[in-house]
From TrEMBL:
InterPro entries xrefs: FAD-dep_OxRdtase, FAD/NAD-bd_sf
Protein name from the UniProt record: FAD dependent oxidoreductase domain-containing protein
PANTHER family per the UniProt record, alphabetical: FAD DEPENDENT OXIDOREDUCTASE SUPERFAMILY (AFU_ORTHOLOGUE AFUA_3G02360), SARCOSINE DEHYDROGENASE-RELATED
GO cellular component terms, A-Z: cytosol; late endosome
Residue ranges occupied by any FAD dependent oxidoreductase domain in the UniProt entry: 4-78
Sections of the chain in a coiled coil: none
An annotated GO BP: retrograde transport, endosome to Golgi
């Protein structure tokens, strides 16, 4: 049996190993990562947050596929219990005004912005949708970005 070496242990590398494991023994799959610390790249920075369409338009098809695969895998493998997969109602909170500097999140890792600015569909929150622990003052804006159909956490 041939051995397979996968470079990178982010979500893509680990997903590749997971699906490859269905076709060859795990002892023939080797993961290599050059990072000196855990969670030091995009997968780690995402902190377990999954979004279906918070990306540049040319990346949306890939993001949708990834989101649906996470959802399908969680359903098939009892992800709710095994790795705490859950749908997530996502809100945008802006204290007394717009996002800092008005920047959007096209390159959120490098620019230190938020991907929430990429989402076009927003609406004012309804009672019960905003977490009770979120303290607000008059003038703050809270909008529902996603009702749980397009965002999740792991």
């Amino acid at each position: 049996m041939a051995h397979t070496v996968i470079l990178g242990t982010g979500v893509i590398g680990l997903s590749t190993a997971f699906y490859l494991r269905q076709h060859q023994p795990g002892t023939t799959i080797h993961l290599v990562d050059s990072a000196q610390e855990l969670f030091s790249s995009a997968s780690g920075y995402a902190g377990g947050f999954l979004a279906k369409d918070w990306f540049r338009p040319n990346l949306v098809p890939l993001a949708e596929l990834s989101f649906e695969e996470h959802k399908k895998l969680a359903e098939e493998e009892n992800g709710k219990e095994r790795w705490a997969y859950a749908k997530s109602v996502t809100v945008s909170y802006e204290p007394n005004g717009p996002l800092l500097g008005g920047k959007r999140g096209e390159d959120w890792l490098l620019e230190g912005t938020s991907r929430a600015g990429l989402v076009e569909a927003r609406r004012e929150h309804r009672d019960g949708e905003v977490p009770e622990w979120l303290r607000r003052v008059d003038g703050d804006s809270v909008n529902v970005i996603d009702d749980g159909s397009g965002t999740a956490i792991v």
